[in-house]
Amino acid sequence: MQIKKHIPNAITLLNLAAGLLAIIAIFKGYYDEAFLFVCLGIFFDFWDGFLARKFKVSGPLGVQLDSLADMVTCGVVPGLMMFVLFQNIQEDSTSIYYLTEDYFYMGFVPYLGFLITLASCYRLAKFNIDTRQTDSFIGLPTPANALVIMSIPMIQYTNDFEWLTTILYNPYFLLFVVILSAFILNAEIPLFSLKIKEFTWAKYKMQILFLIGSLLSFFVLGFVAIPLIILCYVLLSLISNKWAAKV
Questions:
Q1: Residue 37 belongs to a domain with what CATH number?
Q2: What is the C-alpha separation between 115 and 184, in angstroms, rounded?
Q3: Distance of CA 31 to the CA centre of its chain
Q4: Rounded Cα–Cα distance for residues 187 and 227 (Å)
């Protein structure tokens, strides 16, 4: 029984370890590895809670560990990734955008990427004390937001959609993404939970169908599918909320 008690927390620490490895990968310029480590961290984030409920060992320590691990993997990592994306534009001699201090202190722009980290921290702290978010979310969960941010360099370098790549190299668009992320993480928008607590079709059919559809769209569109999936997630939640209000 004592071993069961520590398994979920050990998996949570694996989430944290994945986040740390993602940070190292970003510093080395291995953005594909950073993306995979974030995905791995989110995978661990799902299973730690699932196993804690399965083994009936949920507790305040696990809750705090989970938030601290998510803060790194889904807060620090995407903020750092956005900082680096801005810096890459700054250091690109062929770029038409001037982000250096010689142009109205625009060299400060890359640091605005860490607004994602600050907003993620606030969202995670708020989640821990918000009793409304037991079976659903209010505001975009940090893992979903992290996936969107981490998909940007993947879309840039795969170059499957040239027009989209051009947009993603625009610092003004990236700044819009930063502001939108900070807002939607903490917006009072009810979203259905993607965490399946028990594998029953009747209770989680929307989540199961959504996950299946997400996998299929990823295989068809590649990394471009990720922001589209998150957009559909928000829109589907809004439609679901409207439908529930009418019933």
A1: 1.20.120
A2: 12
A3: 15
A4: 18
Q: How far apart are CA 23 and CA 121, in angstroms?
A: 17
Domain count, the chain: 1
> What is the predicted pLDDT for the residue at 104?
47
**d(Cα 137, Cα 241) in Å, to the nearest integer?**
12
Is residue 218 within 8 Å of 226, Cβ to Cβ?
A: yes
**Structural tokens at position 211:** 């996950």
Residue 8, number of CB atoms within 10 A of its CB: 26
* Continuous H helices in the chain: 2-28, 31-54, 60-71, 77-91, 115-129, 142-158, 162-168, 171-186, 201-221, 225-246
- The closest of 117, 122, 113, 114 to 186, measured between CA atoms, is 122
Q: pTM higher than 0.85 for the full model? A: yes
Query: Is the predicted pLDDT of residue 247 greater than 60, yes or no?
Result: no
- Answer yes or no: are the C-beta atoms of 140 and 191 closer than 8 Å: yes
Q: Which domain holds residue 107?
A: 2-246
